[in-house]
Every structure is written in C-alpha cells, then in structure tokens.
Amino acid sequence: xxxxxxxxxxxxxxxxxxxxxxxxxxxxxxxxxxxxxxxxxxxxxxxxxxxxxxxxxxxxxxxxxxxxxxxxxxxxxxxxxxxxxxxxxxxxxxxxxxxxxxxxxxxxxxxxxxxxxxxxxxxxxxxxxxxxxxxxxxxxxxxxxxxxxxxxxxxxxxxxxxxxxxxxxxxxxxxxxxxxxxxxxxxxxxxxxxxxxxxxxxxxxxxxxxxxxxxxxxxxxxxxxxxxxxxxxxxxxxxxxxxxxxxxxxxxxxxxxxxxxxxxxxxxxxxxxxxxxxxxxxxxxxxxxxxxxxxxxxxxxxxxxxxxxxxxxxxxxxxxxxxxxxxxxxxxxxxxxxxxxxxxxxxxxxxxxxxxxxxxxxxxxxxxxxxxxxxxxxxxxxxxxxxxxxxxxxxxxxxxxxxxxxxxxxxxxxxxxxxxxxxxxxxxxxxxxxxxxxxxxxxxxxxxxxxxxxxxxxxxxxxxxxxxxxxxxxxxxxxxxxxxxxxxxxxxxxxxxxxxxxxxxxxxxxxxxxxxxxxxxxxxxxxxxxxxxxxxxxxxxxxxxxxxxxxxxxxxxxxxxxxxxxxxxxxxxxxxxxxxxxxxxxxxxxxxxxxxx
Length: 597
What we know:
By secondary structure, the chain is of the alpha+beta class. It folds into four domains: 39-274, PPM-type phosphatase domain (Phosphatase 2c, domain 1); 284-375, 2-Layer Sandwich (Phosphorylase Kinase, domain 1), CATH 3.30.200.20; 379-561, Orthogonal Bundle (Transferase(Phosphotransferase), domain 1), CATH 1.10.510.10; 567-596. The chain contains 17 helices and 23 strands. The strands form six sheets. It has a six-stranded antiparallel sheet with strand order 13-14-15-16-18-17, with helices on one face. A five-stranded antiparallel sheet has the order 1-12-11-6-7. A five-stranded antiparallel sheet has the order 2-3-4-5-10, covered by helices on one side. The protein is globular and about 110 Å long. The protein starts with 17 loop residues before the first helix and ends with a helix. 42% of the residues are buried.
C-alpha cells in the first residue's frame, strides 16, 4: 500500500550551503515516502453448528493522508447468542464503526474518536431495543484495533479478544468482561447495546514491522489453546491462510459457536499522522531576527505585524507570485523544544481549520526554517478599533457576535477549545469578514502547550478556570460573552482582573448600567453568557447564536437576581457582628455615664 509523501521538511544546519540543504530535503522526502504504513489482512468467519452466523468482522485500509491521520482499522463482533437481533447488532456495530470513525474530526485522538462513535452506536442499539420488542437482546461484543504510524490502539467490550504476536510470542491485549455463573459457562458483563452507559477498555502501544495482530470471537479462542493459536500463526505466514486455519481448527476441535478470526500482518510501519510529521521538523533552525527588507526562503519582510514574549509575526511578500502572507515564528530560545513543539502543534491545528472565519495556512515548500505561513488580510482587530475610539452599536455588536459564534462553533465541532477569545484575537478585515486569530494556546486531543494549565487573559477567563478546572466549550462561550459585553460598554461584567489575581465573583453588572440604550433581550443574553455558574450559561455556540439571531422576536427570560444572602453568604453575619459591637459600645457608654452621675 502506497500513499503520497506527507508534508514536512528537514534541514541541514543553517550554515550549510543551499545545495546541501536541497540534498538533505530530497533525502528526507524519499525517506518519508518509504515510511507509509502497510498491512496485510486476512479474515474468516464460519457458521459452525449454529443456525445462523452472529459474528461479523471488517477492516478498512484508507490511502494518503487519511491513513496517516486516522490509520487502518479492524473490528470483530459477536452478537448475543440466543437473542433475536444479535446477528444484526454485530453487523450494525462493525459497519457503523468502520464508516463513522473516518468521519470524526481529524483533531480528535484515536481513543476520543472511537469513544465518540461507540457511545453513539451503543445509544442507538439500547434505545431501539427498548422501543421494539422484537429487538430485545440486540447487543454485541466489539473489539477494535487501529494501526497508525508506529502505534496501535485498541477498544474493547465483551469477550472477543485481541492478541499481539511479536517475535513468536503471543500476548493478549484485552480482558474478557465476564461474570462467573454457577449454572452457566459465563455471562457477559458488558456489550454494546446492553446498557445505557457503555464502558470501553482502551489500550495502546508501539508496533514494529513483522508484528501480527489477531482478533478472535469466543467461538474461536474458546476451542483453542493459546499454544495452538501460536503454532498456527507460526506455520501460516499469510494472513488469510492463518485466519482460515484458526476458524477451521476451532470447528474441528468441537466449537459449539460461530468461529471468526481476523489477522493483520504489519509489513511496514509509518509516520503516525501529519502532526508527527510536523514534529519531525522540530530540528529546523529558527529564523534570525528579521528586519524590513530582509529575505528568507524566497520571502521578503515588509512589516513586523506583532511581537510578543514568545512569538513574532511578519507580513511578507512571496517572490514567486507576489502574494502577501503572514509568517509566524518564535523569538524564544532556539534550543527550547517545548516552544518549538507548541508552534508545530499550532500549525497542525490551523491546517485542520478550513473556514473563512480563520486565517488559512499557506503551503510553502522551500521552508528551511521553523515557521509557518498564513493568509494576510488587511483590517484591524476589535481591540484596535476600541483603542481608536470606535463606539460599537448594539446591532453592530450582535452581528459581530453572530459571526464569532459561527466560527467558534466550527472550531468546537473539531474538538478544539480556543482558550483565549478576546477583542485582540478577533480581526475585522477590510473585506468585512470577522476572523478568529491565534490558536497558539488552543487545546485539542488532550494536548495543551502552555506554561500554565489555563493560559487565557484573566479578565476573559471563566470563574471555574481560577479554581483549576480545564478550559472547555463553556469557558470559550463565557469569553465570547465578556467580549461582546466589552464591545458595548468598554467594561468587564465582573471588573478587570489583573494577572496572578485570585478574583471573587458575585453577580455580573448589568450592561445597561453603562449603556442604557441596550435592549432588555440583549442584556439577558449577555448576562446568561457571562453567568458565574457554567450550568446557567449557554451549552453550545449554536444555542448562543440562536439567542442572538432570534433577538427581540423570542427573547430570553431575564436572569433572576439572587437574594443578597445568597449573593454574599457571609454579609449577614458580618452585619450582625457589627450591630452587636455597636450595641455593646452604646451600653458601655450608658453604664459609664450612669456611674459618673
């Protein structure tokens, strides 16, 4: 199986001549073309003594980027025996998984993507069984293997099994989910569709060229000793011949169930995905500090757009076509692998986000330094417009909010949390489009490159973040609410929060205190978005968006103001103590006056 070489660059040291760099890049390209995952697959399923085959198995081996991003998949299932619909459940689970896994966002990790699909499959099977009497018992075991680059991933429910054969040794990678029963051989603890809540076992590990993976239903492994399985695999090098031999031996050994086997042979490991290919570029040198007029890799510096503690952004012009682009690189210590990894992770996320609500990554094959290029858009950020004295009207703010939430909703559907929504990161272009900037601290797939857990800007950070909770969709939507509030009022709903401050949150100040012209429905939307308790906020960007689009036609109910005792639980006790001290002081004065009289 072949696929195009994944994008990515290697470089000789910065002092080498251009010819040496070109040779190194060409060698790296050949090397990467040769490092594409290749597997051979064999599968066999026999009905045995049963009236029908309730087992089902399947495999998918995509090509190109999908192979490097998602990997090759194999799955095996055994529908609950003796129940109507068991054979349908096994087919539905395997086919649904093989189709839907490849439709999940590329930004999800393999376990997260598998879990999203498995939970959906389980919910459908379980609910259908409750609604239709003929579907009772429609449940199935399911064991899944994903091979991606140099790693394998497993997902497992039930008593089918996954084995790894390495250097002639057989290793079981899954645990049977069975109850011991005094009258029955075994009873399943878990199966897809059996219970409303599905608990899945996940595992992962390294793969090597020559490894073999074996997926078996209990009708096969239950009739064979593990030593017999090892012997068959040692004797049959071809995966299809091995799968046929396993099921045939199980039936010959008296298997009373369907017998199914799926065998995968790793012919060649490969690079896991685009993210891993980009991480290989960590050895590229950082560009030197550039000035206007300098050139690098066929790009001419025209403007220093932004400079922060860690990054530099330049507006550049590409010599080949005159296109204006943005070059983003680091100004950190060139030997800081964490900073380099963060920039490469940001590039990987930005490549996944193909939407006009975000600047787009622009390929630039001659790259010999560590940076990446984005599309350039004339205009200004919303914070620059505020600083220039622009007064945002309510209709203007609502329209900006609608566009912001459409873009952010797309980001969340990719399972990416921005973590730093604020006017400074929102750009209104000369073309009238709003674009969300800076994925530098965004998190996805459990990867967060930052010095602290929640690296957002304090005044836009949700209250739960100060308590140590991780950033989430809810905290992104909170930051949206604060941003719209600030555009209208130039204030913050809870006041400005300084860095390293540990703020205390009461109730948000109504925006009409600063802008009496704000409509009641819009105030209700903003207060809901900025609610202290995440449960009182909008759950999704789409819900927030709908509230803005409906506006006065279907307004939200105004948030109920809490009683003073609930807003400040200790205030009553403090007043009582103060009154008590005052009363004691008055009594003391009266006593002294009486004695002196």
